[in-house]
Design brief:
By secondary structure, this protein is an alpha/beta fold. It contains 9 helices and 12 strands. Helix 4 links the parallel strand 4 and strand 5. The chain starts with a strand and ends with a helix.
């Protein structure tokens, strides 16, 4: 039986990937610190990857600044690749972000470093860049304290985490392909508008205020920096369809 390890397997996307693996009657190994496997220190990784055919890395850290983001992805990515080489993993798949190579925000520098490690690493690889999930607007609301929620004015192309998970498992079961086509949803929206729709759906009176993204990063986002490029894979679920299930 094919075994796929999911690094960050208890997160928003990770849970969906684990479910997608198991729906196909394949074996899933969940890698998470809560289960005693620490990507940053490497503790438990060798045992977790024993007999694993493919690794899907959807690990994440909440960090807006470049330094902690780079530190996390450098440590976690490096340990995962080294353990994968020792275990004889045949395919390393990392889920990255559309636009991380052209939008200069702190967290994106961390994703760039993660991609660099994978490209130069010892395990055959595929990088799948995806747009923000439908869940992202809600996460931004949770991170904004107080009764008035400040949401960055980001032009985005939200994608279904569930459908992305199915796509990523397809990729993991295939041959290593290098940088794969971008993956995104079927519509473009501004993030504050998505947040307002979510608030209204919940019957909440929370006020959402659009927060301009300053400087170079703001100009890059306005120019479509977070949107998919030519030849992208477009997954069909709209934000409205997702919202109706919440």
């Amino acid at each position: 039986m094919t075994t796929i390890a999911v690094a960050g397997g208890t997160g928003v996307l990770g849970r969906q990937v684990v479910d997608a693996v198991r729906r196909r009657d394949l074996s899933a190994v969940v890698i998470a610190r809560s289960l005693g496997i620490d990507l940053v220190t490497g503790d438990g990784l060798d045992d977790a990857l024993a007999g694993v055919d493919a690794v899907v890395d959807v690990s994440n850290v909440v960090a807006l600044r470049a330094k902690p983001a780079i530190a996390f992805f450098e440590a976690a990515g490096g340990n995962l690749l080294s353990a994968g080489e020792r275990a004889g993993v045949r395919h390393h798949v990392v889920v990255s972000i559309v636009g991380c190579d052209r939008v200069d925000m702190g967290y994106y520098y961390g994703k760039r470093r993660q991609e660099e490690l994978v490209r130069g690493g010892p395990v055959p690889w595929t990088i799948v860049r995806a747009t923000q999930f439908h869940d992202f607007a809600g996460q931004l609301l949770e991170r904004s304290p107080g009764p008035v929620k400040l949401v960055p004015d980001m032009l985005s192309q939200p994608v279904s985490a569930r459908q992305l998970a199915e796509h990523v498992v397809d990729v993991a079961l295939g041959a290593p392909a290098g940088l794969a086509p971008d993956v995104g949803g079927p519509e473009q929206h501004r993030m504050p508008d998505l947040a307002r729709r979510l608030v209204a759906h919940r019957g909440d009176r929370t006020k959402v205020v659009s927060l301009p993204v300053p400087g170079k990063a703001g100009r890059q986002i306005k120019g479509g920096g977070l949107l998919t490029g030519e030849g992208a894979v477009i997954l069909p679920e709209t934000y409205g369809a997702w919202l109706a299930t919440q």
